[in-house]
């Protein structure tokens, strides 16, 4: 595939090889020939077995668990391509780790999201393509162009096919005040109302539901969040919506299925009927659950990569 004088090359780290293969299938090219291995002491080693000189290179790698290993793989792959004279390097990071450390919550806290942004830039990336950052302002941490994709259109398509448009028995719920803007946009896409779970977080990964703002009684509820980590927030919100708000059925969707610690067991035992996630983080065999369903982001990212390569606008993908 050659357009403006540069050849397109898509490479993948170990975290996102299956996704990268599917993206290549959607675009109609083959995945670049490279491998990432580790020395006996754990150091990452990258080998690229084809030329990237002058090429438009896209490196697909989520910085999910093991976060530090996958981040180092990404940085070393970027450096390898830069030193091999790639024409342009785009870091395709479906899930951007460290995004929750985006501000100083207390004295002497690091802002690790900014540090990671600096490292990606210093390694030699020319631009970044990612999806649903935990805090949208992280876009400003980068001194290079960043394209911020949204998962809401994929979820909207799924639920519109399931329930139809402007269904009066359906309502979107934000699991916390911080996610209201994301939930409002999602509700607009579905043509439904919006409610909010007001909660107080005592410590990391623990939350206490305080109040429900809006009427969810006898309605099917869709909880929307950017990620599911330990599952506490979503499961507590679902419990409050049923036991306090009188909701009928509770469904949930989240872009990033981090699913750490007791997450899967909590979801199994919760009021959540179904949790829909995107494959920004690959599904793990040990964390499979009948309640959890995955939608693929490959066509969306393939379209974005193709448009970046062709140097045309990708803004219509946000809609």
Low-confidence stretches: none
Q: What pattern of helices and strands is seen along the backbone?
A: EHEEEHEHEEHEHEEEHEHEEH
Sheet with the most strands? Answer: 7 strands, mixed
Q: How big is the Rg?
A: 20 Å
Which range does the strand content fall in?
25-35%
Shape: globular
How is this structure best described in words?
- With 319 residues, the protein is an alpha/beta fold.
- It has helices at 17-27, 67-83, 112-123, 152-163, 180-190, 232-243, 263-269, 298-310; strands at residues 8-12, 34-38, 44-48, 56-60, 88-93, 127-131, 146-149, 170-174, 193-203, 206-213, 220-228, 250-257, 272-278, 292-295.
- It has 2 domains: 8-149 and 298-318, Rossmann fold, CATH 3.40.50.2020; 152-295, Rossmann fold (3-Layer(aba) Sandwich), CATH 3.40.50.2020.
- The longest helix has 17 residues, at 67-83.
